[in-house]
Specification:
single chain; alpha/beta; two-stranded antiparallel ribbon; 21 helices; 13 strands; 39% helix; globular; beta-glucosidase activity; Glyco_hydro_1
Length: 537
């Protein structure tokens, strides 16, 4: 195991550390407790070939039943907060208030929140993490219609009412870009609307949790307009939820609210090329700036309005712009990787979001070398410097907002032979987090970026969207072949346990782990029914 070289005492006393999951990825219990179907349930059941190995989230890591065990993991590891999402359809099975409120769903999240607080862990709650109610998709096309704004706002208000007395950190929508791009341009996420095969020449810009090696080409929908329509409605839904929270709940509950955006950093393919430098800027504008500019300034980036006509990229009215402007108390930032970008002067016969930026991206530089170490997931190349540059840009361009790194992590494929013990060795994940944390500290110390917290993705191996259970992002291994879905801390979990101590400690090595009894590897005092069942380990 890698030495620590950095620990939590290197950050300010108020700096927080957490880890994260999302509802569809870990909860399971898809047909239990009154939960209704989401668009992910629908796709996995009716279009199973869209997910590698025909996997789905019906059971996932079964956190619905094992949440107390997960909370004990969080406590033993020493994290300050747990970022999780609320399943919209577990609260509102039909997506709308008039379709009925599910009391069992409310009770489940009350139980989880109370269990976290009883163990000294803050809940950090996301309202929407990809799992849009299928009922709203069937009724009016979900985010293709402005009706979604009122329905999302009603769902958010219900959550603020029931949970806001204890939840002090809210995220409206997680990675809206992923929804717009994968759901309505590339067609790999539900509702699987998107591009012609010609557009997939630009798929390198969408290498985020998508099986880009085997893209599922879609012919339905309009990739030239629908991604922009969906983004517009997601932004308005976000702004309305923030307005409700600020006007009706914030002063009494004392919390804060934000949005989580994902960003890939782009370096110019040719460092000497002005065209490539501009292309790198456009690539960022058409992904991150597409959302960050509206919630900060009330309008889209100029590079987008210059290139995409208003009949496809509808501008915001003065009233809409006023609601959007400043509609976050903090920015949640998901960062994983970086790419090179280069200018693409091609004039395409059909308009598409995937080609509108005039920028193509690649992970391989002109010297034939990747931008960073390639990982097992294929789309992640380890490039901590991208986080540094991104944070500095956000400070300068967006008035130094408060930031929480809401996801940062890397996948492993586990041992090739499926051996659990060998799968616990994940030095690449330790290096990844260590180097990104060192880079984050440099950005804070040298440039005074206002980062308030860091979130490791993920607490558990989970359903990783289009790649199913192949990519394991967890710092804790989940044995999906075990009826108990046993959890085992990986080396990275032990690294975090040491990192989160208030002062430096002697680092454990892989050889130290080899001499540990199973009980020591699973953290002192951590005893659960699932753990007791692991006699075969």
């Amino acid at each position: 195991m890698e030495k620590l070289e950095i620990n939590r005492s290197d950050f300010g006393k108020d700096f927080l550390f957490g880890t994260a999951t999302s509802a569809y990825q870990v909860e399971g219990a898809a047909k239990e407790g009154g939960r209704g179907p989401s668009i992910w349930d629908e796709m996995c059941r009716k279009k199973p070939d869209k997910v590698r190995n025909y996997d789905n989230g019906d059971v996932a890591a079964d956190s619905y039943h094992l949440y107390k065990e997960d909370v004990q993991l969080l406590k033993q590891l020493g994290f300050d907060y747990y970022r999780f999402s609320i399943s919209w359809t577990r609260i509102l099975p039909g997506g709308r208030l008039n379709a009925g409120v599910n009391k069992e769903g409310i009770q489940y999240y009350n139980n989880l929140i109370n269990e976290l607080l009883a163990n000294g862990i803050q809940p950090f709650v996301t309202l929407l993490h990809f799992d849009v109610p299928q009922a709203l998709e069937d009724e009016y096309g979900s985010f293709l219609d402005e009706k979604i704004v009122a329905d999302f706002a009603a769902f958010a208000r219900l959550c603020f009412w029931h949970f806001g007395d204890r939840v002090k950190n809210w995220i409206t929508i997680n990675e809206p870009w992923t929804v717009s791009c994968f759901g309505y341009a590339a067609g790999t996420f539900p509702p699987n609307r998107g591009s012609s095969s010609a557009d997939h020449g630009s798929l390198s810009i969408v290498q985020h949790r998508c099986d880009v090696m085997h893209p599922q080409i879609c012919q339905n929908g309009d990739p030239g307009t629908e991604p922009y329509t969906v983004t517009r409605n997601m932004l308005l839904a976000h702004a309305e939820a923030v307005r409700i929270y600020r006007q009706k709940f914030q002063s009494a509950q004392g919390g804060q609210i934000g949005i989580t955006l994902n960003a890939t950093w782009f370096e110019p393919y040719n460092a000497e090329s002005a065209d490539d430098a501009k292309a790198a800027g456009r690539a960022l504008d058409f992904t991150f700036g597409w959302f960050m500019d509206p919630v900060t300034y009330g309008q889209y980036p100029k590079s987008m309005t210059d290139r995409v006509p208003e009949n496809r990229l509808k501008r915001f009215s003065d009233d809409e712009s006023a609601k959007l402007k400043g509609s976050y108390d903090f920015l949640g930032l998901n960062y994983y990787t970086a790419n090179y970008a280069y200018n693409d002067p091609t004039v395409y016969p059909e308009p598409s979001y995937l080609t509108d930026s005039g920028a193509k991206t690649t992970a391989t530089g002109p010297d034939g070398k990747p931008i960073g170490e390639r990982t097992s997931s294929g789309w992640i190349y380890i490039y901590p410097e991208g986080l540094f540059k991104l944070l500095c840009l956000i400070k300068t361009r967006y008035n130094n907002p408060a930031i929480y790194i809401t996801e940062n992590g890397v996948a492993d494929a586990g041992a090739l032979d499926g051996t659990i013990y060998l799968s616990l060795s994940d030095d690449i994940r330790i290096r990844y987090h260590r180097d990104h944390l060192k880079t984050l500290k440099r950005a804070i110390d040298q440039y005074s970026v206002s980062v308030k917290g860091y979130t490791a993705w993920s607490l558990l191996d989970n359903f990783e969207w289009a790649v199913g259970y192949k990519d394991r992002f967890g710092i804790c291994y989940v044995d999906f072949n075990d009826a108990n879905l046993a959890r085992y801390p990986k080396d990275s979990a032990i690294w975090f346990k040491n990192f989160l101590k208030p002062r430096p400690v002697k680092a454990l090595s892989t050889s130290d782990n080899a001499q540990m009894p199973a009980s020591a590897m699973e953290l002192p005092g951590y005893e659960t029914p699932a753990k007791r069942a692991r006699e075969s380990y």
